[in-house]
Hints:
This protein is α+β, with helices and mostly antiparallel strands. The chain has helices spanning 2-17, 66-78, and strands spanning 23-30, 33-41, 46-51, 59-63.
Amino acid sequence: MSQLQGILTRLKNLQEQSKETESAQRFFEIDGMKKCQVTYFSKTEMFELEVFNEKTKSSKYQFDNVDMISIEIFDLLQS
C-alpha cells in the first residue's frame, strides 16, 4: 500500500508543478529501467501515460482521474 501512496503523492506533485507551465512530466522506473512516463496537462486537467515496451512501440493512454492512473502505474510496476 505504501508504494501506491508514493505514486499518488508523486502524481499530485506533478499537478502542482504544472501550475507554473502548461505541462509537467515524470518517469517511473524499476531498477534503473524506465517503465513509463506520465505527463500532466494543466489546461485540460488530463494525465497521459506512456508505457515503454522493449519489443514494440510505446503505448499512450489518457486519464482524467488521479486515482485511476495511480492504480495503472502500480500494476505496471508490479509486473
